[in-house]
Design brief:
4-stranded antiparallel sheet; 276 residues; globular; 12 strands; 33% helix; 8-stranded mixed sheet; alpha+beta
């Protein structure tokens, strides 16, 4: 038996859709799993020691199913960690899906639910599992997601050399927001949904709940964000909790030394599983 699984990078929030919107992009992590006499994880030809989110999720589900860990796993990691591109969601989703595939109980819905519970929020997990542009939330203690067509065909992603952890980025957010700011975000995310399939206006992606505070963690990031906004009419937003930024469309940007620019298409595909 041989399994090949892949999961896309994801951008959560997408402006004002905090913990609700996410978009899958064509930048993917992959794992290849084969039966073996013992357990090993290899990446770039090197045996990996220790546990990451993939392995923790994989082992958790294998224990649940009462299965042995007699597998050789090869990882191919393309999603940069701690940049707001859903690397943790991809790892968790791949770990859960790999164990489910081995057990013969693959369920996209259950993968999404377990990954959302593990992550503590459903946005990245939804886009990672289902692909496209997703709207997700928790209702009556159940995680729910809907996948729609991508709202942008292409994105320019700017990745600075510094990183942000989701945990630290959440610490700067207020526990209570004003009615005015709440209404602002509701109106703006509603306009995004109302204009699906049409050209999106930049103002629809404005936000008063999280972006400004997260950008303030790095003055140079905030300065660059404002500079991009002054030069384009396309939507500009922080990727998840940062530190990457995204601009709708293809843009050739002059970035500081050490920063990286990626041009990526949106992905209609979420998690993929192949059995050879």
């Amino acid at each position: 038996m041989k399994l090949i699984l892949s999961a896309p990078a994801t951008i959560a929030n997408v402006g004002g859709g905090f913990d609700t919107f996410a978009l899958a992009i064509n930048l993917r992590n992959e794992v290849i799993i084969e039966e073996s006499s013992n357990f090993s994880i290899i990446e770039k030809g090197i045996k990996i020691e220790g546990e990451d989110l993939f392995l923790k999720s994989f082992k958790m589900m294998m224990r649940k199913y009462g299965l042995d860990l007699n597998y050789k796993i090869e990882k191919k990691t393309m999603i940069p960690p701690k940049k707001g591109l859903g690397s943790s969601a991809a790892s968790v989703v791949l770990g859960i899906a790999a164990a489910m595939a081995i057990n013969g109980s693959l369920s996209r819905k259950r993968i999404f639910e377990i990954a959302s519970e593990t992550e503590g929020h459903p946005d990245n997990a939804a886009a990672c599992v289902y692909g496209g542009f997703t709207v997700s939330g928790r209702f009556e203690n159940n995680y729910v997601a809907r996948s729609l067509s991508p709202i942008f065909p292409y994105l320019t992603i700017v990745i600075p050399p510094f990183s942000t952890s989701t945990h630290e980025a959440r610490k700067v957010l207020p526990k209570i927001v004003s009615l005015e700011d709440a209404v602002f975000n509701v109106q703006h995310v509603a306009m995004v949904v109302a204009n699906l399939g049409k050209k999106m206006k930049r103002e629809f992606f404005e936000d008063k709940l999280h972006q400004e505070r997260r950008l303030s963690l790095y003055p140079e990031l905030k300065e660059f964000f404002e500079r991009i906004k002054s030069k384009t009419n396309d939507p500009v937003f922080i990727c998840g909790s940062g530190s990457a930024l995204a601009v709708a469309g293809i843009h050739f940007l002059d970035v500081p030394s050490g920063w990286e620019v990626l041009h990526k298409s949106a992905s209609k595909r979420g998690l993929t599983v192949r059995r050879l």
